[in-house]
Amino acid sequence: MKRLLLPALCGALFLATPAFAACDSDNLPDEMRLAFISGAQEALNEHGFNAGPVDGKMGSRTRTAIRSYQRAAKLPVDGCVSQGLLDHLNFSQPKIYGPNRPR
Question: Is the dihedral of CA 82, 65, 60, 35 positive or negative?
Answer without folding.
Answer: positive
